[in-house]
Amino acid sequence: VEPLSYADVQAVIRNKAQFPTPIRLINSLLSATKGLINSGGTLLCTQNLDAILGLETDNQGRHLVRVQAGCRLAKLNRWLQRQGWEILFPVDTDEATVGSVIANNNPLTAPEKRHHFPNHVVAVLYINENGGLRILSDADNQDHAQFFKFQYNPDLPSIVVECVIKIQRISQIQKTANSRLF
pTM for the whole thing? Predict the structure, then answer.
């Protein structure tokens, strides 16, 4: 299933007759894990939910970008660079999606590590197991890395569709590197 809207994702989760569980989330289609195996359940791909929704500043003065989970990091990084911003998270591949990096439970990026992607995500909009649209933010819970634990289990039907990520102005080192690339 390739939903075009959040309502489409909700419909998939709610219609268990047409879309049986488990619902396995496919983000970037790069995984070599069991997430790509369909053993009677439903595969849901977020590649059409890839919009960059804009820049924001929150009440704490943090600079943020709001983006849909299917957005590839290469697209997000290029867009941010044109605006003079960058994410604070190094990635192994620009082809990964925001949603796939949120769901990454690689021990090399454990939550206590500075570069663990969820440490830079301040809010997520997700569809819960009943098809309800929910928001979790660090304003609700200071230990916001905990928000993403439900994503580590591919058999859970909660699906992140949008997130808000901390960003910073591009550093001089990054500006120099980018000028060589573009």
Answer: 0.81
